[in-house]
């Protein structure tokens, strides 16, 4: 063997070690999940991720290839999250609720916690049409926008393990609810009108309330929609006074309870 062949053989041995370690790590991730489930512990433990980051930072201090190693660990962490989320949710999570109920915020939190893909319906529709939601309403009318929503929901049925963050009005159409449920569990997020007003007061991309940002108007529209929201929901989560972590833990627990049935 010449020097090059020897080096290549050593590299191959390294890869074997990495591969075995990765397989072992993934098994441990699954075992941790199972342990948390059977002992009713919270699935999300962000402090654990912070600890791992800190450990790596210390271990790699002033070392060569710090950025490269960190990149690999980022990828390992992402994949652990994916393993967890696929085990937890073999369907799509469809978030519904009034404007400002927290659909986008909770989607983002789920994305960070479980490396799940997020389909932000308003954003995708806006991008595809090359217009803001307000402009779509103004130029083509609400019906046109609602049809785009229905088509997008149908398109999403071919995916699995994604979070679909609906527009506030999406579940008002019965056909949309039918489409959501084909491959999704529907989670209704609720909040008091006062909370909603506080969350939406500074944004200007919601044509239905743009000129009526008041508690009575919001309360009235919310009441008109309540029955349809509740009929569409598999689970309902109140968001007032809770942080994202609490809301997501509740969401995970309630979805798991649905599955255990
Ligand atoms: C709407 C809610 C908005 C957006 C559009 C119509 C509604 O979405 O789809 O302005 O009918 O409630 P958000 O709930 O994300 O604000």
TrEMBL record:
Database matches in Gene3D superfamilies:
Chorismate mutase (1.20.59.10), P-loop containing nucleotide triphosphate hydrolases (3.40.50.300)
UniProt subcellular location: Cytoplasm
User: Which pathway does the database say it acts in?
Assistant: Metabolic intermediate biosynthesis; chorismate biosynthesis; chorismate from D-erythrose 4-phosphate and phosphoenolpyruvate: step 5/7
Q: Which InterPro entries match?
A: Chorismate_II_sf (IPR036263), CM_dom_sf (IPR036979), CM_II_prokaryot (IPR002701), P-loop_NTPase (IPR027417), Shikimate/glucono_kinase (IPR031322), Shikimate_kinase/TSH1 (IPR000623)
Write down the EC number.
Answer: 2.7.1.71
GO cellular component term of the entry, any:
cytosol
**Where in this chain does the entry annotate a coiled-coil region?**
none
Domain Chorismate mutase residues, every copy? 1-88
A single Gene Ontology biological process assigned to it is: chorismate biosynthetic process
**Quick one: which residues bind ATP?**
100-105, 206
Any one Gene Ontology MF annotation carried by this entry is: magnesium ion binding
Cofactor remark from the record: Binds 1 Mg(2+) ion per subunit.
Q: Which Pfam families match?
A: CM_2 (PF01817), SKI (PF01202)
Q: Which cofactor does it need?
A: Mg(2+)
Q: Which residues of the sequence carry a binding annotation for substrate?
A: 122, 146, 168, 225
Is the Zinc-finger keyword given for this protein? Answer: no
Residues the record lists as binding Mg(2+): 104
Q: How does it assemble?
A: Monomer.
Q: Which family does it belong to?
A: Belongs to the shikimate kinase family.
Q: What does this protein do?
A: Catalyzes the specific phosphorylation of the 3-hydroxyl group of shikimic acid using ATP as a cosubstrate.
Record HAMAP family: Shikimate_kinase
Q: What is this protein called?
A: Shikimate kinase
Q: Which organism is it from?
A: [Ruminococcus] torques
Q: Quick one: which gene encodes this?
A: aroK_2
């Amino acid at each position: 063997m010449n020097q090059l062949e020897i080096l290549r053989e050593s590299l191959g041995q390294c890869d074997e070690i990495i591969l075995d370690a990765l397989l072992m790590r993934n098994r441990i991730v699954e075992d941790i999940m199972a342990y948390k489930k059977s002992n009713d512990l919270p699935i999300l433990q962000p402090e654990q991720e912070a600890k791992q980051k800190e450990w790596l930072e210390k271990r790699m201090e002033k070392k060569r290839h710090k950025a490269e190693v960190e990149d690999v660990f980022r990828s390992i962490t992402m994949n652990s999250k994916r393993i967890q989320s696929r085990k937890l949710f073999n369907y799509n999570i469809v978030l519904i609720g009034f404007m400002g109920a927290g659909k986008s915020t909770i989607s983002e939190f789920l994305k960070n916690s479980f490396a799940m893909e997020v389909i932000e319906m308003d954003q995708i529709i806006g991008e595809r049409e090359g217009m803001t939601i307000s402009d779509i309403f103004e130029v083509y009318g609400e019906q046109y926008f609602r049809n785009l929503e229905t088509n997008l929901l149908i398109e999403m049925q071919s995916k699995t393990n994604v979070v679909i963050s609906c527009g506030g009005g999406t579940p008002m159409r019965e056909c949309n609810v039918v489409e959501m449920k084909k491959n999704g569990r529907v989670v209704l997020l609720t909040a008091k009108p006062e909370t909603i007003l506080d969350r939406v007061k500074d944004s200007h991309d919601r044509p239905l309330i743009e000129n009526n940002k008041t508690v009575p108007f919001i309360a009235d529209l919310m009441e008109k929609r309540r029955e349809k929201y509740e009929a569409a929901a598999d689970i309902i989560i109140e968001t007032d006074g809770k942080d994202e972590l609490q809301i997501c833990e509740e969401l995970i627990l309630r979805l798991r309870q649905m599955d255990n049935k």
